[in-house]
């Protein structure tokens, strides 16, 4: 039986938090892979909204001593909501895996754009600095210290806004 800790369900969505599972989503394609984390683009079946889904194998997390960090990350992210963070929308687990469903941002990370020698006008750079400052201030107000502000942890959305990912919560 899947259990869930869900955010983002509105009264207009059919179903409840308890019925949220991998079957609630259509997996569209893989977009990333780490040592024990896989990321794919998914579409929620009941509202057709697109998300990114991170999933981690419980056994691999146990072997790497990461269960505590994953649970803590979910606990903290479930309390946060900011326009310049990659926000947690839903989380749930099944017998083998833990799932985190987050905002889908398809603009790529800032590191990729810098390596492509993309020219950023001064106004865009100023806007990015304001967005970064806003996100960092929000995290500070929530007693969270951001340790690794670097281009690969800043994702762009379709409108060109920056969003922090990977909060590295310990």
TrEMBL record:
<dbReference type="GO" id="GO:0005524">
    <property type="term" value="F:ATP binding"/>
</dbReference>
<dbReference type="Pfam" id="PF00069">
    <property type="entry name" value="Pkinase"/>
</dbReference>
<feature type="domain" description="Protein kinase">
    <location>
        <begin position="25"/>
        <end position="170"/>
    </location>
</feature>
<keyword id="KW-0808">Transferase</keyword>
<dbReference type="GO" id="GO:0009966">
    <property type="term" value="P:regulation of signal transduction"/>
</dbReference>
<dbReference type="GO" id="GO:0001664">
    <property type="term" value="F:G protein-coupled receptor binding"/>
</dbReference>
<dbReference type="GO" id="GO:0004703">
    <property type="term" value="F:G protein-coupled receptor kinase activity"/>
</dbReference>
<keyword id="KW-0723">Serine/threonine-protein kinase</keyword>
<dbReference type="InterPro" id="IPR011009">
    <property type="entry name" value="Kinase-like_dom_sf"/>
</dbReference>
<keyword id="KW-0067">ATP-binding</keyword>
<protein>
    <recommendedName>
        <fullName>Protein kinase domain-containing protein</fullName>
    </recommendedName>
</protein>
<dbReference type="GO" id="GO:0007186">
    <property type="term" value="P:G protein-coupled receptor signaling pathway"/>
</dbReference>
<keyword id="KW-0547">Nucleotide-binding</keyword>
<dbReference type="InterPro" id="IPR000719">
    <property type="entry name" value="Prot_kinase_dom"/>
</dbReference>
<keyword id="KW-0418">Kinase</keyword>
């Amino acid at each position: 039986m899947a259990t869930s800790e869900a955010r983002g369900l509105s009264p207009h969505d059919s179903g409840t938090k308890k019925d949220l599972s991998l079957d609630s989503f259509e997996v569209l394609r893989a977009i990333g892979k780490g040592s024990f984390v896989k990321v794919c683009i998914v579409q929620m079946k009941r509202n057709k909204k697109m998300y990114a889904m991170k999933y981690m194998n419980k056994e691999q997390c146990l072997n790497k001593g990461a269960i505590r960090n994953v649970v803590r990350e979910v606990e903290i992210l479930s309390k946060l909501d900011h326009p310049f963070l990659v926000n947690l929308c839903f989380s749930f687990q099944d017998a083998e895996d833990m799932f985190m469903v987050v905002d889908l941002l398809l603009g790529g990370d800032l590191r990729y754009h810098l390596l492509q020698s993309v020219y950023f006008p001064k106004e865009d750079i100023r806007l990015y600095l304001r967005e970064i400052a806003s996100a960092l201030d929000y995290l500070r107000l929530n007693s969270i210290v951001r340790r690794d502000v670097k281009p690969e942890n800043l994702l762009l959305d379709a409108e060109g806004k920056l969003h922090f990912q990977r909060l590295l919560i310990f």
